[in-house]
Amino acid sequence: MSVTPSIVQYEFIGLDAKVVKSSNPSVVGIAGKVDDETRNSLVILHDGEKKVIIKDTAVFEFVMPNGTVVELDGKVLIGRAEDRLKKRPRRLW
Amino acid sequence: MNSTKQIALQRVHRLFSLAKQVIHEDPEKAQHYIQIARKIAMRTRLRLPKEYRSLVCRKCKSFILPGVNCRVRIQQRREPHMVITCLNCGGHSRIPLKGEKKQC
Fold this sequence. Notes:
The complex is a heterodimer of chains A (93) and B (104). Chain A is built from no helices and 6 strands.
């Protein structure tokens, strides 16, 4: 899995994630497995607790299955899991 | 197969493997993962792969795993077939077993 704009379409449930930046300072630093996903939020298991993090205002760091670490702005992740499959951003970087 | 369908297939594989790991601890979460996988497959007009089709109940569409919440029996009468009983809803689904034809 190479890092291409289509990375937005991949599955994030089950990956290790970390909140790098957020406008809400109390969620910065939360790390753990992604447990669930909704249209506007990600649910991360942090020390056995479920933490709901709003996608719009956060920047996430994901560890992909092949080991690469990807930092993604939450703004491009907005959308339901099945709707994200159809959207393709132009260029992210 | 275009690239969107390939990505969808990868996601279906991951979700099913996650559901299998999780079903013993949290059955509801496993059902939720299967719902997402089915939605992804429907949205991209992808048929679920053959090995997963028997893991979803045909009647109530819930995740069934042999030995956990379904019963698998083989019947020899009429045509040899496999009967999968979902223990959530009680529905049956029959799958024909294609074998070598007996020569009289």
